[in-house]
Amino acid sequence: MKKTLFDNINTNPQSKEPVEFSVSEISQKLKNYVEKNFSNIRVKGELSRITIAKSGHMYSSIKDKNAVLDIICWRGNLANLSIKPEEGLEVICTGRLTTYAGRSNYQMIIEKMELAGVGALLKMLEERKQKLLAEGLFAIDKKKPIPLMPNIIGVITSPTGAVIRDIMHRISDRFPTKILLHPVMVQGESAAKQVILAVENFNNIKNKDLKPDVIIIARGGGSFEDLMPFNDEELVRAVSKSKIPIISAIGHETDTSLIDYAADLRAPTPTAAAEKAVPVKKDIKIHISTLSARANRAVTNKIVNLNKQIKSLKRGLGDPLRLLENANQRLDQISIRLDLSLKNWINSKKFDLDRLKSSVRPQNINIKIDNYSQRLKDIENRYFLAFRQNIYKKEQNLKYLSSMLDSLSFKKTLKRGFVLVKDNKNSKTITRVKQLNSKDSLELQFYDGSVDVNIDNIKT
């Protein structure tokens, strides 16, 4: 007889016949047994193979030296965990065991997660710190100066609690300034992501009238686990990348988080961050009054010293009227010498003019004109004589060339009875019988004219 799910596995201990189950029945029986006996357990181990599905659920495993246990943390519980699950982190998980028939394995559903030992976590944080330090995220030369009197202060913290009230109260007392609050969670799994988003949102504000001049990231005191979101690597990078100066104020004075190293200024408490963000208005007024008094005293002293210098120079200068008397006397002497020099120069030029005038006489000019006229006539006679001689030579040469051309002309030969024969087609001269063809048209040129003839046949 077939056994039901809720019957004992072996109803007849004396019988050696095995009990028969369906796959679903054995899976369900095991599931009931595991969940009943392991409904509230705590397991210690090292996290590995962390995967966050698109649904928001976390699938991972926890292991020790000898075994591995699959774990699941549903989305709702994952957001409320006190620490952020990370690879290699030693934790204590609280939850229940169950089975998954689809893969015939057992797994643990996580409801709470806490650190198994602070030493392991501190080692992990130190390794992360050294890694970020090597990348230059904590370099001093990357720190941006905090403005003396910011127009707007951006505050990233929880909208409830004493932190925001302390910051606002302290800023109001010291130097009333506009505060722009970006509310975030400061504890839990999603805290780091919210702070990252807040830093990016402040940096992405385009309106200069709304953009903060400095950002304060603040959180009150808490346990080591509570402050873990501010050791998040992505948050440290976001703080280091911020274009707006950031003041970190996480926990109490003895608490230190990784964003303290990346921030441009670290404050021991949120109240101290407010003090570092703005000056004391009364102190500034006193300082301005002090500077104003010092400036007035400096100007007064400068005027007194200049008056003393003027009096001292006046004593060394002497009587200005006497200096003018000497200058007037020298001016008169120079004027007298100038008048005398001008008269002498005019007389000298008159003498030169008279001398030139006496040397220029009409008879001398006429003699020069006659001489130049005679020279011009001589040149003219020589030019015409040379021109006629050149013409005669050219004429004789032309006659010689004409007689040479006439003696070499072929018409002289035609006059003696010869005939010039040409082909009418191409006007070429025929000099041999073999150049002729039957019925060619020829031109016979005589001394007194030419005639065209046709050749009927050729006899050689």
Give the structure's gist in a few sentences.
The chain is an alpha/beta fold.
Strands of the largest sheet, in order across it? 1-2-3-5-4
Radius of gyration: 63 Å
Distance between the terminal alpha carbons, to the nearest Å?
Answer: 148 Å
In CATH, the architecture of the domain at 123-279 is 3-Layer(aba) Sandwich
Class of secondary structure makeup = alpha/beta
Report the uncertain regions: 1-9
Q: What percent of residues adopt helix (DSSP H or I)?
A: 40-55%
In oligomeric terms, what are we looking at?
single chain
Written overview of the protein:
The chain has 12 helices and 13 strands. The chain is α/β, with parallel strands linked by helices and 460 residues long. Among the domains are: 23-116, Nucleic acid-binding proteins (OB fold (Dihydrolipoamide Acetyltransferase, E2P), Beta Barrel); 123-279, Succinyl-CoA synthetase domains (Rossmann fold, 3-Layer(aba) Sandwich); 413-454, no CATH class. A hairpin with a 2-residue loop joins strand 12 and strand 13.
